[in-house]
Amino acid sequence: MTTASPPLSGFANHFSSEAVAGALPLGRNSPQRPAFGLYAEQLSGSAFTAPRASNRHTWLYRRQPSVVTGAHSPYPQDQWCSGAADCGAGMAVPPDPLRWQPFGLPPQAVLVDFVDGLATVCANGDPEAQVGITLLVYTANAAMQRRALVDSDGELLIVPQLGRLVVTTELGVLQAAPGQIVLIPRGLVFKVDLPDGASRGYVCENHGSAFSLPELGPIGANGLANPRDFIAPAAAFETGAGAYEILCRSGGKLWRRAQAHSPFDVVAWHGNLCPFVYDTAHFMAIGSISFDHPDPSIFTVLTSASDTPGTANCDFVIFPPRWLVMEDSFRPPWFHRNVMAEFMGLVHGQYDAKPGGFSPGGASLHNPMVAHGPDAQAFAKASAASQAPHKLDHTLAFMFESRYRLHPSAWAMQSEHLDSAYSQCWQGLADHFNPAPTS
Hints:
This protein has an eight-stranded antiparallel sheet. It is mostly beta strands. Strand 11 and strand 12 (172-176) form a beta hairpin. Helix content is 4%, strand content 34%.
C-alpha cells in the first residue's frame, strides 16, 4: 500500500488525505476530469439536508467507482441476527440478570475470520427503522484476505479484548490493540487482519443516530474523551490485482457479491465521515472528590441520541483506571434498578463490583428494572475498607447502555458460556437490620 502522512486528529471535523500528491482536487469536489484518471464518489452518512453540525459526508477519489461490481446472493451466517424481532423471535426470556463466561476461541484446525466469527449476544430496535443496537462478540483466528465487509444497517464500534486488529478501510488503515476502539461508519467497506492470531472482542452495530461525543455541560470545556485523540487514517490503496468477495449487511441479512478489483482503491479523500481509532488511556475521568458514588454517565465516551433528549439510543461507557477518594462513602457501584438496559464487558483486569465470576472476554446483561449491583464479596470488602485514597489500576470494563430492552439471542441463551449460577453471587447478602433500642 502507498500511504501519506495522517491528517490532523479530531472528531466530526473535516479531514483530508492523499496517497499520491496532487490527487486531491482543490476548490471543487467533482471536477470534470479528476487527476490521474480517478473517479469522484461521495459517501453520505446523513441526509443531504441534515443540519450543518450533524451533516456527515466524504468525497472519495478512487480508481474505479463502487458501482463496478456483481449481483448479490445470500450469505449464510446464522449467528448474526439483528433487531428485537429477529433475535427474540419465539423466545421468552425472563427478566433475570444474565452473565456469560469468556467466549471460546475457534479451534486451531478451523480457520474463522472476523465476519464468520461474529455472534449476536443481544439486540433491540429494528435496523429497518434505523433504531436500536445489536451487540455481538467476535472470536476469530484468520485474516479476511481477499474478502471485505460493508454494513448498510449501521455503524460498527469494535472493542478488541484479545489480540490486535489491523483494519483496512476504503480511507486507509487503522491498527487497534486491546484498550483501544475502532469506529467504522455505516456503508464503509473494510476488512480485518489478526497479527496476533486468535483474537476476541466485542462489537456494537448501531442502527440509530451516529455516535458522537457527549455534551460536557457543567464539566466545562475539558474532560472525558477529547476530540483530538480520535485518529483518522491516512489515504492508502492496494496495488495488487485480484478479485474480492464483498459481504454486505443489509436489512438484517448478510449478502455476498464478487468484484474483479479491490474495494480499497481510494487514492485521496476529504470529509468528516471517516473511521477512527481511539485509545481509552486518553480518557480524562471525572469523579467525586468529596463523598458519594456519582452516576456512571460521567464515564461516557460516545453517545447515540434517541428522539428523547438525555435518553440515549446507545451510550458507550468505560470504567478505566482511576482514583477513588470519596469519604464516608460506599465506593463501588451501588445496588440499583435502571430504566436503561446495560450490557457490560471486561477487556482486562478486575471489575470492582464483581471481583470473582466476571472475567475478561465475558459479558453481562441487566435489562430495564432488573436489580443488580456488587456481589456479596465486593459488598463485604467495600463496607469494611479503609477510606484512604485508593487507585483502581490495571482494569478496563465497558458498558453499552440503551433505552430499549435488549433481547438475548438463541445462540447466547444456548451457549455453554451462559452462567446459570450468576444470581448466586448475591445470596450472601443477609438481613442485618438491628434497630437501636428505644429509650
